[in-house]
Each structure stands twice: as structure tokens, then as C-alpha cells.
Amino acid sequence: MSLEESEKRLADYAKEFGARESDMSFMKQLLHTVAAKQKEIDEVIVRAAPEWPIEKIAAIDRNVLRLGLAELLYADRTQVPAKVAINEAIELAKTFGSNSSGRFVNGVLGAVYIELGEPGKSEGAARKKAAQKTGKMPTEHLAGAVVYAQSGGETYLAFVHDIFGHWTISKGKIEENEDVQKGAAREIKEEMGLDIKIVEELGVNEYIANDSKVDGGKKRKRVTYFLAEAPFTELRLGPSGGLDDAQWFPLSAVGDLNFYDDTLKIIIPAINVLAQKGKK
């Protein structure tokens, strides 16, 4: 079915079920997103539900997942919070699918939500209260770096791409008793094949993550980010799980990339530092 035919069918269904005219713009945008990103969305479904070949998933469940993932991965989270997208998909599956559809959709979208770092969970007073109780939680230390290089008079930044369609900062777990800067350098070498020189620290990001292997089912993750310089050489993506690409981007093109909000909070200061260096 072509996109034009899909739009016509959407309009027919909207009329039949009495959808508000004010909702049509959002519904059309969601349809366009699913159509444009179907390949990437289906790859996420395959990774989140490896025991279910996508062609074997019931049509209703498969398409509800596509809608839910389109909102979860690509929608403006200020307009469609992650948990709202998941709950709406679950309700659709319960209404139009089988008795097990709601549980299946919940399982797949829940797995993706956790992999994304549970976006939106940190908002509000409830998260602040939880943060005050993290003293007894195990802490996992990670480190990463915004890596830059100079070539032909231009500045380039290196990023890795995850299976959920976002470019992000290369990072990884710090080993026990390992120096955090040395750990960051090791992770960048393993993940992108680059030898880096740490320039300065950019900041620290802390968040709570689910982990069924620890008491209480939760742990605190503390990520230290650095700005680092490297030679402008070919990137070699390592065997890290959840990543499918690594590329250099000219500084002028970075603004067009799809980043997570918390990643931008680290990248923007890095760009500001590089801009100041360029003025000297």
C-alpha cells in the first residue's frame, strides 16, 4: 500500500470513528514517521523480541509496535512522553489484538524503554525523592568522550549510532580500580578504534537504571564525560552491544543529527569549548 493510499484510508477511518479534525495533523505525522522509518523500527522489534521473527508476529501486534516505537523513538517527548506512548500502544493492543497482545507489546516496548535509559523517569518530585535514597544502591561507573579531530582546516566529531536510531557519545563501564580517564581512553579504543588524548572533563551524568541482577533491582549509573582529541583516521566499530555504526561528522553537520536530550547536554558544552579554541 502506498503512502497516498494509507493517508486516504486514515482519513476514511478518522471520519468513520469520529476523530477530531485537530488530531489529524498528529495522526498524519505519525503515519509518515512509521512509513519513513519502518526499516529501522522493524530492526528494533527484531532485537527486542529475538524469539519472534517479525513476519510471525500477528499483524495487529506488529503494527501497534510500529506505532508505539515511532512515538517512543522519534516523537517530541515534550508532546508525547515515553510512558504515554507505551501505555497508548498497550491499550491499542488490548482493544484490537488477542488476549496476549497487551502483554507482548508491553514486554517489547518496556525492553526498549529500559535500553533508552528510561526517558522521562527523572522528571518530577518522585524522581527527586528516589534520588535521595540511592545511597545504598550499587553504583556503576562509566566514562566516555566527545572525540574531535582536525582535518583540512575543519573540525570533526566522532559519534556512535545505536539500534534505536540515535547518534550518541561513545562510553563504557570503568573496571574496578581503573583510573576514569584511562578507562575512557580504553573504551573509545575498544568501541571506535581511536587513540585519544583527554583535553578536559565536560561533566557527569547520573541516573537510576533497572538491573535484575542486583538487590532491589536498581542501580545508580554515574557517567563521566570528557572532551578528547584524536587523529582523523577511519573509525572501526567494536563489538559493543546495541551499536551499529560509528562515523565522523563535520562540526557544521552535528546539529542535524538525532541525539538523546541528555546527550545534547554534554555535546553542546563540548562544541562551545571547541568554538573558543577556534578563536584563539
Automatic annotation (TrEMBL):
Pfam families per the UniProt record, alphabetical:
NUDIX, NusB
Task: Give residue ranges for domain Nudix hydrolase.
Answer: 138-275
What are the transmembrane regions? none
Reading the lineage from the top rank, the first entry is Bacteria
The molecular function terms of the Gene Ontology recorded here are:
hydrolase activity; RNA binding
Q: Does the keyword Hydrolase apply?
A: yes
| Entries under InterPro entries matching the protein | NUDIX_hydrolase-like_dom_sf, NUDIX_hydrolase_CS, NUDIX_hydrolase_dom, NusB-like_sf, NusB_fam, NusB_RsmB_TIM44
**One GO CC term, this protein:** cytosol
Provide a GO biological process annotation: DNA-templated transcription termination
Q: Which NCBIfam families match?
A: nusB (TIGR01951)
| Function of the protein | Involved in transcription antitermination. Required for transcription of ribosomal RNA (rRNA) genes. Binds specifically to the boxA antiterminator sequence of the ribosomal RNA (rrn) operons.
PANTHER family in UniProt: ANTITERMINATION NUSB DOMAIN-CONTAINING PROTEIN (PTHR11078:SF3), N UTILIZATION SUBSTANCE PROTEIN B-RELATED (PTHR11078)
The record, for HAMAP family, names:
NusB (MF_00073)
Record's protein name: Transcription antitermination protein NusB
